[in-house]
Each structure stands twice: as C-alpha cells, then as structure tokens.
Amino acid sequence: xxxxxxxxxxxxxxxxxxxxxxxxxxxxxxxxxxxxxxxxxxxxxxxxxxxxxxxxxxxxxxxxxxxxxxxxxxxxxxxxxxxxxxxxxxxxxxxxxxxxxxxxxxxxxxxxxxxxxxxxxxxxxxxxxxxxxxxxxxxxxxxxxxxxxxxxxxxxxxxxxxxxxxxxxxxxxxxxxxxxxxxxxxxxxxxxxxxxxxxxxxxxxxx
Length: 207
What we know:
Helix content: over 70%
Strand content: under 5%
Radius of gyration: 18 Å
Low-confidence stretches: 201-207
CATH topology: Vanadium-containing Chloroperoxidase, domain 1
Order of helices and strands: HHHHHHHH
C-alpha cells in the first residue's frame, strides 16, 4: 500500500508538471533549442547512457537464463541485476503503449510542420514524443539502484538528469516528455520492487 500511495502521489505531481509544461514551457523551449543549438553532438553524448540500459538488461537476462539452463551457479549480484533488468523491460513496454495512447507530436513536427499538441491514439512518424522512452528506461534501473543501494543515489540522479537535459537540448523531446518518462521509470521500478518483495516472502514461507 505504501508503494501504491507513492506512485499515486507521484502520478499526480507528474500530471500537474506535464500540464504546466505543455501549456507554458514545452513549445518555447523547443523553438529556443532549434534556434540556438546547431550542434547536437554534446547533447547526444549527454543522452548516450540511456542507450545502454535495454541492451544490458537483455544481456543479463540471456546470460542468467543460460546459466540456469546449464545448472550453473547464479551470476554475481543476481538478485540486484534481476531487479534492474526487469524494471528496464517494464518501463520500455509501458512507454511504447503510452506513446500510442497520448500521440504527442515530436518537437521536430513543431519545427518543421507547425504541429504541436496531443493527438491520442495517433500513429505516424510525427507522433510518439510522450513520454520520453530514453528517460523511462534509464530512470527505471537507476532509480531502483538508488532505492536498493542509497550510496549510489547521487550518481544515479545525476546520470538521469544529464540524459533528460541531453534529450531536451538536442531537440529530441520536450521537457514535459522527460518528466513523464521519469515517472514511467519510477512506476516501473516501484512495481518491480513490490513484485519481487512479494516473491521473496512467498519463497521464505515454503516448507
């Protein structure tokens, strides 16, 4: 119940922030970025850590399945890495469905075609900006890590913020997109943590 309450509170905060950004912040920021920054490379470097999350999660799960099938001992830090990987996969799946549900036009659609806003259940190359998938699947494992290993919390949050700034500064996402991606990652991490905690409790009660 505590986790559900935290997710609900953060969902409300996310909704308010996204609404404010969509109304007052996102459009001017996207136009400012387009007019000011001609070289996206620094922002691509800032956002680059997000590209590692999903491949690393799939790599770990593949290796873990192979070890299990071969009857070999568990990989080092198995429990922690399993949680990080599952959170990444859940966030990735969730963001795909949410992109279709909200149908938000990309910043490039604003710049090139003057299309701005949400167009629910709309598919196409101009739509799918919300939430930010890169933010979702980097924040899910790193927030999980920050919760389970608080000594790494600061570096985890710094990496997430760098990725969000890189996505905005490179013109790939609106600020509101990254806020929604952050919440998507948080919700995925919270859900996996509760699920795995329940699984541990069931295993502990087995005769």
